[in-house]
Amino acid sequence: MGNVAVFASGSGSNFQAIADALKESPHRLVLLVCDRKKAYVRQRAQAAGIPVEDINYFRGDTREDAERELLERLKPRSIDLIVLAGFMRLLSPLLVDAYKDRIINIHPSLLPKYPGTHGIEESYRSGDRELGITIHRVDYGLDTGPVIRQGKIPRIDGESLEDFEARIHALEHRLYPEVILDILEGNIS
Length: 189
Fold this sequence. Notes:
By secondary structure, the protein is α/β, with parallel strands linked by helices. It has a single domain (3-184), classed as 3-Layer(aba) Sandwich (Rossmann fold), CATH 3.40.50.170. It is built from six helices and seven strands; from the N terminus they run βαβαβαβαβαββα. The protein has helices at 13-23, 41-48, 63-74, 93-98, 119-126, 161-184; strands spanning 3-8, 28-34, 52-54, 81-84, 103-107, 130-137, 147-154. A seven-stranded mixed beta sheet has the order 3-2-1-4-5-6-7. Strand 1, helix 1 and strand 2 (28-34) form a beta-alpha-beta unit. The longest helix is centred in the last third of the chain and has 24 residues, at 161-184. The protein is globular, with a radius of gyration of 16 Å. The protein starts with a strand and ends in a 5-residue tail after the last helix. The mean pLDDT is 96. It is an enzyme of class 2 (transferase).
């Protein structure tokens, strides 16, 4: 049985997909880590009975100071896997090293194309015929870690950004929980 912590900053649709998938497994979603007080993901966690830990990057401390404090709060929970789900922060080497090869992220483009916070929009505007998502391990860089799996969808000519984004999110909500379960069950090393 694996213990999962999800780090999120926004509405939490991927958090919800992960929570739903883990509910039907022997693994447990034991914690949400959030860096935004008004993020809707907090309500999702509360509804699911998942505790929330805050990480405050805005206090004036360094990123490492905030993460050092968080690491102390993570230890008693025996976290096996950290899952970034719309967590809009670059993690410091301190946290990455503490959970080496046990932090994964999802990105709404076929990396290495369109890394960073505007992946959906850049992918949509690219003209690429094949689009999709990437699930990867987290390293020190911005969306540079080793790719675990990619999911692809074809471009639909004339599709609106909103419709494209909905297709990307649907793919994320299906594929990310599958990969998480595969990792927890030892099917992906």
